[in-house]
Amino acid sequence: MDDRIADLFARHGPLVYRRALQLMGSAADAEEATQEVFIRAAAAIDGFDPRARLSTWLYRITTNYCLNQLRDRGRRRDLLEARAEEAAPAAVPYDLAKMVQMRRLLAEADPREAAAAVAVFVDGMSHAEAAQVLEVSRRTVGNLCDRFVRWAAERLDEAGS
Hints:
CATH class of the largest domain: Mainly Alpha
Mean pLDDT: 83
Low-confidence stretches: 86-92
Shape: globular
């Protein structure tokens, strides 16, 4: 492994892992995502702008990778979930059900809206902080979050939640 990548992993691996765990929900998925993020970072490191912050760059790679994984899984999981619901007990812990519902919404949402919503609502960033990470204006962050909230509310209403 290139020394730059080894150093990058040593300094930022825990940050990437925590971010992936937060989005993916399981340690195994977070470990896999962390590995994939650093593989992607290694492939793109020569194009990295040294004026930017590495942590911001890795945050974006991690968030995008995890949201894409959740979106892809959602497509494959629909059939499996239908079968599991038939066999599963009716009582599901409230928090677990809400967490699954949120991950599903993020997986189905517009990627830009999902990224803004995660930054603001999950990570607790201000619009200014999210704008810097996402490389958009504060106003765009607000608009993306508003659209996500409206879209998610409609989806939840349709589902009867």
